[in-house]
Write a structure and sequence with these properties.
Helix content: 40-55%
Largest sheet: 5 strands, mixed
Number of domains: 2
Shape: elongated
Radius of gyration: 27 Å
Oligomer: single chain
Order of helices and strands: HEEHEHHEEHHHHHHHEHEEHEHEEHE
Distance between the termini: 79 Å
Strand content: 5-15%
């Protein structure tokens, strides 16, 4: 039997919970009828599936009221202990549903405010939940519905790539909290680490063909970067050997940024790194900037500021623009690919 759209505004039980309910029904019988409305299941999807697990015929009852939406909400709020975030996800499902009373032929939309009031949550939380449902991966949405992730944290995670969202959603609650804290932020937020938007990573890959090493990275960051090898903060990339084509987003605090750039230049001089792309803020008055400029083949000064991701996954707003340095022999390829991000200049040594 099909499910009514109103039945789908609340999340289903997990497979293990349905199996447990099925075992109970098999032993004690179905204690509560499955409610049918317009020849579809209005309430009782979990019981319906549990009956299939138990291999027993379901017991049905026809809905006789005139406000099916309120009926579904009332029943589920009594049965379930939902968090604020879970209620917000339900409210966003209710918002803009075309609903009406059984005796009326007119249909009307439910606004965000009205849906929030029905679930006793704030309109702001409901609007956030709507954004998560619209922009997030199904796995992330399900993680909020199950109570693993708060809706505010899920909104922050929207800035991650689809692969990163799925990875984070697969973790345990405590692991998710830790990963959110580890998301890399920008200077000005008090953090040394940050994530780079995917479009810049993809452009770098097109120029370098492949990223052999990201020496200032993390497990989550490498889901997007896909470097053959990466060093995390625990690995201490400054003390390791660098080989191959490098993508480098150094920590932005001193003295780390200067140390990473000095290390890159040393590896290039030693011919261990034949090609590299370095992303920094455009601090043209600093010693490390001039060191990178003196060695690079080209620099792209970005048009506007890159929206890095903060430690909580939100897009940060740097107080300055960025510079992307290219070290290698294919300046034409770099210029052609990165000119869409800003203007590219080639330093001339006199």
């Amino acid at each position: 039997m099909e499910y009514h759209e109103l039945a789908n505004i609340f999340p289903m039980m997990s497979e293990s919970e349905i199996q447990e309910l099925g075992n109970d029904i098999k032993q004690n019988g179905q204690q509560e009828s499955i409610i049918v409305y317009q020849e579809k299941i209005l309430d009782g999807r979990n019981r319906f599936q549990a009956c299939q697990v138990a291999e027993v015929l379901p017991i049905y009852e026809e809905y006789k009221g005139d406000d099916p939406l309120s009926f579904v909400i009332s029943l589920n709020l009594k049965r379930r202990h939902l968090s604020e975030s879970q209620k917000a996800m339900v409210a966003q499902s209710i918002a803009n549903l075309e609903v009406g009373k059984k005796t009326a032929n007119l249909q009307s939309s439910v606004t965000i405010d009205a849906a929030a009031a029905m679930m006793n949550v704030s309109p702001r939380s409901t609007a956030t939940a709507r954004q998560v449902a619209k922009e997030g991966e199904p796995e992330l949405k399900q993680a909020v519905e199950s109570g693993k992730v708060s809706v505010s944290a899920a909104k922050n995670l929207l800035a991650l790539s689809p692969e990163e969202q799925k990875y984070v959603a697969s973790l345990s609650e405590s692991e998710i909290r830790q990963e959110v804290k580890k998301i890399r932020g920008t200077q000005g937020t008090g953090q040394n680490e940050w994530y780079t938007p995917k479009e810049y990573i993809e452009a770098a890959k097109e120029v370098l063909d492949v990223i052999d090493l990201d020496p200032a990275s993390s497990e989550i960051a490498n889901i997007t970067v896909k470097a053959k090898k990466f060093y995390s903060i625990d690995d201490d990339g400054l003390s390791r050997d660098w080989q191959g084509r490098v993508w480098l987003n150094p920590p932005y605090s001193q003295p780390q940024i200067g140390q990473f750039i000095e290390k890159l230049i040393e590896e290039i001089k030693s011919q261990n790194v034949p090609e590299a792309i370095l992303l920094t803020h455009n601090y043209t008055d600093t010693k490390w900037f001039h060191a990178a400029q003196s060695r690079c083949a080209a620099i792209c000064f970005t048009k506007g500021r890159i929206g890095f991701l903060s430690p909580e996954g939100q897009k940060a707003a740097p107080t300055q623009g960025q510079a992307i340095f290219y070290f290698g022999n294919d300046v034409h390829k770099f210029s052609k690919r990165f000119e869409s991000f800003g203007f590219v200049m080639v330093p001339h040594v006199i």
